[in-house]
Design brief:
Elements: H1 21-28, E1 32-36, E2 39-42, H2 44-63, E3 67-68, E4 74-76, H3 77-83, H4 85-91, E5 97-99, E6 105-108, H5 113-123, E7 132-141, E8 156-166, H6 169-189, E9 194-198, E10 208-215, E11 221-226, E12 231-234, E13 255-258, H7 265-274, E14 286-294, E15 299-307, H8 314-325, E16 333-336, H9 339-346, E17 363-367, H10 368-371, E18 377-380, E19 386-391, H11 393-396, E20 402-404, E21 423-437, H12 439-443, E22 447-449, E23 455-457, E24 459-465, H13 467-477, E25 479-480, E26 483-484, E27 495-499, H14 506-521, E28 526-528, H15 535-545, E29 549-553, E30 561-566, E31 572-575, H16 576-599
Parallel strand pairs: 3-7, 15-17, 17-20, 27-28, 27-29
Antiparallel strand pairs: 1-2, 4-6, 5-6, 7-8, 8-24, 9-10, 10-21, 11-12, 11-21, 13-19, 14-15, 14-16, 18-19, 21-24, 22-23, 25-26, 29-30, 30-31
Helix pairs in contact: 1-13, 2-6, 2-13, 6-16, 14-16
Bound molecules: adenosine-5'-triphosphate and magnesium ion.
Length: about 600
């Protein structure tokens, strides 16, 4: 490719709304154009990156047995009603909808379980055809509450989504393991450090799932992990051991104490310590948070309890309420109560809610990990300006208190599977794999004929990779002060040749052109920078855009030499006759290295 024909448009300044490196550098390099809120146009450079990422994904998912298909983005409401997800996605307002001229409503695919399950029910009849895995690489739409960070969280994006169909859960387990390896291979080939963590299944549902994370300080997910034991989980899902606290002396019976104007735990603790209850800390308090949970059919009031020094994890709480709701579930939306709702639920001002008398909610749920073994506590009295000291959950809580895991695990908590301690880091979710079981096939009556001549619902798995998000995540792992440092396997071009002689220096130009043809013939993705610009400007552009290998044909050409430099590496003088071979060998070695890393998975 000739740079003069590439319509390059790099920016020297960071765009004002770009908060993270990938957004900033992709905008400055001219990869991205903002077309609307959460909507981006992929420029020619980004298109090449996306194509390369897509090719690796297709290659690896096919290698794992996937069959590529393309499903419609516009999906009939009726299909989504069969699975029950139309209501879920409408309630969470995640799905964008359109209407055709006949007035029929369609959802724009946020994911495609319904369409593929319907397909499978038509094309798979016998157990002899199983297992099968279909996948596509296609546009997805999600009406995100807060699109941000450039390609990272957008309303329209490209996802590889795969769906596997099985006769048994053992067969699903085998494919799930294969897909997990395929993901690891995929990210290794792209030069991305990604790792699997246990995850919550969210609106997709199912019995188990893992997310693939790229470690990055700007990641929106928190991961708890222990490098010794290998445990790693999204905070939404993480379990752990929470250290117990020493007991303090409190009245043997539950005693109401006036705490005028002190509703917040830290205020109550300070007030009690100053009034004779020495040694009480936040960890001796019962934290009560009141919520309203919405399902498709009901609104439920909930009081959630956790030890006073800890936080409630809303994903865990949502799952706990969903379990309690049974057929009336799942919970589609969870929000803290407004002050007037708190007054109605407790008969008191906010800050004085507790688990004893006076609490009027549908469900009261206490955290097992921090409260099951707790000693006497300080809790709200459900009476304005009053707390209860010496409150014993087993003795004093209202009947019907439920127990579940609600606490947010944090760094310093114990590894659930070993003696070790958990650490915390941030990650970008680039992929997600789920064991769906029969959730969709049962709801949609998608069945096959088993060896017993009876009809059985398919056992299913599903698997997603955020193809376009991967491009942004790759930049977060590969950039420096000058710009992007693409791994060669996903770089828009592999090599750039910069003629840097005086204008009209025919020897330089012909040396550059000869190298250009040599590299093109070898199948290298090569650019020659034939623009009428100063070498310094050209170097800056290519460093920003992130081409992995640069050859400069300059003054040295007169002595038969050119300069070769891997991005971020050292400049070396190379004999002109060897320069093409040097670049080709470098690119091939890089690709081979990534493949070897994938083969080691
Ligand atoms: P997130 O938690 O980041 O919202 P998700 O868990 O809802 O993502 P999945 O349903 O698991 O996403 O979708 C599979 C993959 O699609 C994700 O792992 C991610 O890489 C990508 N993805 C999801 N939502 C977006 C988005 N709004 N913009 C870009 N990529 C996305
Ligand atoms: Mg996910």
């Amino acid at each position: 490719m000739r740079a003069s024909r590439m319509n390059l448009a790099t920016l020297r300044e960071d765009p004002a709304d770009a908060e993270i490196a990938s957004h900033r550098l992709l905008m400055r390099g001219g990869f991205l154009h903002k077309s609307g809120a959460g909507l981006y146009l992929y420029g020619p450079l980004l298109q090449r990156v996306i194509d390369k990422i897509s090719r690796i994904v297709v290659d690896e998912i096919s290698r794992a047995g996937g069959l590529q298909i393309t499903m419609p983005i516009m999906q009939e409401q009726a299909l989504w009603e069969k699975s029950g997800r139309w209501a879920t996605y409408q309630a969470s307002r995640t799905m964008l909808t359109v209407r055709d001229r006949a007035g029929q409503t369609f959802g724009l695919a946020p994911t495609a379980e319904e369409v593929v399950t319907d397909y499978a029910s038509h094309v798979i009849t016998s157990h002899k055809q199983l297992p099968v895995c279909f996948f596509q690489q296609h546009t997805k739409f999600r009406d995100e509450i807060r699109p941000r960070f450039g390609l990272m969280r957008v309303k329209e994006f490209i996802m590889m989504d795969a769906y596997s169909f099985h006769a048994s859960s053992e067969s699903l387990d085998a494919t799930y393991a294969q897909m997990r390896t395929a993901y690891q291979r995929t990210f290794k080939r792209m030069g991305l450090e990604a790792f699997a963590v246990e995850a919550d299944s969210g609106a997709i549902g199912g019995s188990g799932s893992h997310e693939f994370m790229v470690a990055a300080a700007v990641g929106e997910d928190t991961i708890l992990f222990n490098p010794q034991s290998g445990y790693a989980a999204n905070v939404e899902r993480a379990i752990g051991r929470v250290a117990a606290v020493g007991k303090v002396s409190m009245p043997a019976t539950c005693t109401a104490v006036a705490t005028p104007g002190h509703g917040h735990i830290s205020e109550v603790v300070a007030f009690l310590n100053a009034n004779g209850y020495v040694g009480i800390t936040a960890a001796h308090c019962l934290k009560c948070v009141l919520f309203v949970a919405k399902s498709a059919t009901a609104e439920t009031t909930v009081a959630a309890f956790v030890r006073g020094d800890r936080e409630i994890n809303e994903v865990k709480l949502t799952n706990a309420i969903t379990r309690l709701l049974g057929d009336a579930g799942p919970v589609l939306n969870l929000r803290p109560m407004q002050p007037d709702e708190v007054r109605a639920a407790t008969g008191a001002e906010p800050g004085f809610a507790g688990a004893g008398e006076g609490l009027r909610v549908k469900f009261a749920i206490a955290d097992k990990l921090t409260l099951a073994e707790a000693g006497p506590l300080v809790g709200g009295a459900n009476k304005t300006d009053h707390h209860l000291v010496g409150f014993d959950l087993a003795r004093d809580a209202l009947p019907g208190l439920q127990w579940d895991e609600l606490v947010t695990i944090r760094a310093g908590d114990g590894d659930p599977r070993s003696e070790g301690v958990l650490e915390e880091k941030r990650g970008i979710e680039v992929g997600h794999i789920f064991k769906l079981g029969t959730k969709y096939s049962e709801a949609m009556k998608a069945e096959f004929l088993g060896p017993d001549q009876k009809r059985h619902p398919f056992v299913m798995g599903c698997y997603g990779i955020g193809t376009s998000r991967v491009a942004a995540a790759a930049v977060e792992q590969h950039f420096d002060a000058d710009g992007i440092t693409w791994p060669v396997t996903i770089a828009p071009y592999e090599v750039v040749i910069v003629p840097a002689g005086k204008p009209g220096d025919v020897a330089v130009e012909s040396a550059a052109e000869a190298l250009y043809s040599e590299l093109q013939q070898a199948g290298i993705d090569v650019v020659i920078d034939d623009r009428d610009a100063k070498p310094g400007v050209k170097f800056k552009d290519w460093d920003l855009i992130g081409i992995p290998f640069r050859i400069v044909c300059g003054r040295g050409v007169a002595e038969g030499k050119v300069e070769c430099k891997p991005r971020g590496g050292e400049n070396a003088d190379v004999a002109m006759a060897d320069a093409g071979a040097t670049a080709i060998a470098w690119v091939r070695a890089q690709i081979a290295q990534r493949r070897a890393a994938a083969d080691a998975c």
